[in-house]
Each structure stands twice: as structure tokens, then as C-alpha cells.
Design brief:
There is one protein chain. The chain is mainly alpha-helical. Helix content is 73%, strand content 0%. It has two domains: 63 residues; 41 residues. Helix 1 packs antiparallel against helix 2. The termini are far apart.
């Protein structure tokens, strides 16, 4: 049997404040990230999001586990690679069509 975990009002306020700090920090650094996208490498986005969700008291059951995340990202990468390959094939086909009249 699971018992609900009691969280005091003070603890909830502290967590909300911590979450607000994450949101404010990300908002403040947004322009820097836009100007220099490589600076985003400094932040573990997954962990920041997990911490913020936890601090806002979001039910952990709705958060995917690492295996699911890896599977989703792998599928996305495969799909992007397939699209890129199709675009490359189309470009090569168009180049060949343009070369055929020159060969005559």
C-alpha cells in the first residue's frame, strides 16, 4: 500500500522558488544562447527540465525513463538521416538530369 508523501507548505514554497530560479535563469540567458548556440553545451537540458518539473511538483509517472528517451531520440535521428539521404539522392538526380543535355 502506498501512502501519500506529506510535503510541508514551506518545502513547497522553497521548491517553487527554486523552479522559478531555473526558469528565470533560462529566460535571462536566452539571448546569449541565440547569439552563441554553443554556450548551450554548458547546460544539461534534460536534467534542468527534470529538476524544474520535480520542483513544480509534477507527477514523476508522466516523465519518460532514460530507455524511452533514448529510443525516441534514436528513431528521430534515423528519420532525419533518412530524409537527408533522400534529399541527397534527389540533388544527385537533378544534377544528372542537368548533365545529360551537355553530353549530347
Amino acid at each position: 500500500m502506498l501512502f501519500p508523501r506529506y510535503v510541508s507548505q514551506v518545502a513547497r514554497v522553497q521548491r517553487a522558488s527554486d523552479a522559478d530560479n531555473i526558469v528565470r535563469a533560462i529566460t535571462a540567458i536566452g539571448p546569449i544562447i541565440q547569439a552563441q548556440p554553443e554556450t548551450l553545451d554548458l547546460i544539461d537540458g534534460d536534467m534542468a527540465l527534470k529538476k524544474a518539473l520535480e520542483m513544480f511538483g509534477i507527477d514523476q509517472e508522466i516523465i519518460r525513463d532514460e530507455d524511452e528517451i533514448e529510443s525516441i531520440r534514436g528513431a528521430r535521428a534515423d528519420q532525419e538521416a533518412q530524409v537527408q539521404e533522400q534529399e541527397q539522392q534527389q540533388l544527385e538526380s537533378e544534377q544528372m538530369k542537368n548533365l545529360i543535355p551537355l553530353a549530347k
